[in-house]
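Hello forum,

I keep getting stuck at the same step: I have a sequence, I want structure tokens, and every attempt I make locally crashes halfway through. Rather than fight my setup again tonight, could one of you with a working pipeline run this one for me? It's a single chain of 502 residues.
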Amino acid sequence: MPGHLAAGFALLLDPLVIVTALCGLIAGIVVGALPGLTATMAVAVLAPFTFFMEPLIGLPFLLGIYKGAIYAGSIPAILLNTPGTAAAAATAIDGNAMARAGKPRLALQISLVASVIADLAATVVLILVAAPLASVAIRVGSPEFALLYAIALTMVAAVSGDDLLKGLIATAIGVLIALIGLDPMSGAQRYTFDSVLLQGGVSLIPLLIGMFALSEILIRAEKAMAAPPSLAAHAATGGPALRWPLLRRLMPTIARSTGVGTGLGTLPGLGAEVSCWASYGIAQRISRTPQEFGRGAPEGVASAEAGNNAVCPAALIPMTVFGIPGDTITAVLLGAFMAQGLNPGPLMFDRDAEMIYALFAFLIVSNLMLLAFGIIAIRYLQRIVLIPAGLLYPVVAAFCFAGAFAVNNAGFDIVIMTAGGIAGYAMRKTGMPIPPLVIGMLLAPGLENALRQSLTAWRGSLDIFITRPGALALLCVLGLLLATFIWRGIRSSTDPTTAKGD
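Reply #2:
Ran it on my machine without issues. Output:
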């Protein structure tokens, strides 16, 4: 592993790689600092433009966007009490209270340092854990992989939203969309309605652009575009700066929240949006002064930012090792990897070892970039939060259409993107979660292949799932998860405290 990592750092010596990656990081910070533009939207819209780049250039560009956007969501959260991304929602509670108390500079610096420390620690965990897990996963048979995919689908459906039934429906729709096209074994047409355009299946990236980016634009356009907030950003550099005594006091909180974010990031469906609240809640319960939370507690900012940024590298563990995305952003990254000819999974650590370790090395280097550019961003980029929505969203919409067309240079992809945008808009309005649909669409082919291989090897008998110890253990885990989620759904539906009007 040290040799592969050294080779990965050597590949990063190309100035073009560093410059492109820095551009991605800057773009991510800009997007994250704009309320309403999410990290998922940014990665989905810009992913098609990386298909014309070498993998070593395009993939770090996307990873830079990912990391920059997750961090920069804290800038408007602190200054305007308007999180730039959903992952910064918990940061706004104490961050904005500190800004109102005349300490915006301190809040922004705590956010930056906590983000960098957590990201770096989680990256080290990724490097240490990924290869050993891959060596184990490569010995796992198709029955175990089929059950792993089923467990991932179940978790994603259950944790994405408050309504279990809606999560299951969204996952099922995603699986059905994945079946459109030609049967991989027989070549028969499935759900194509005799259309030649659908024989290759539904193009993933245009659909993602529509569901995440275009639907967000439609939602924002529906709302009355209010004037920019009255809170001016010119005071962002005011107040005291972060000093070592305070940082030393915050280190236990940062370390604990990093552990929470890393653990949750490795579980499919539990992304930075969940981790920020979990880390914040734990920090408040453990704190000796819980009454200070919500009133400008530095621990509140540090815990939320460490928790959400630790998810970024951790979510790459299931994606790189098993080919299972940890959250919606890694689902988009998975599509980008596949478009570049890389198939995430245990075999990638043998076939493309230099490439994967180059990306791991970039994650370390990007932390230094984030720290350096974040200091600049704190001082100069705060005014970006005041860009009028009427100017911003038409530009983003233009990027959506250009990005969708650029995937295959096909006009039909624009139709897919538009349909995805309308569907995403309808799902948001009805409370149907989008992530289960997307991840279900991505996991369905792997589940189908693993299930077919298992049944073919065992002549159609399901006994293979109970005669193999590993498969039987995973089957028990799946059954336990289903029973837990069903029981939780029954309790919530009968609980009078939750049955009251919404």
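Residues 2-223+237-493 form one domain. If your local run keeps crashing, start a new thread with the error log.
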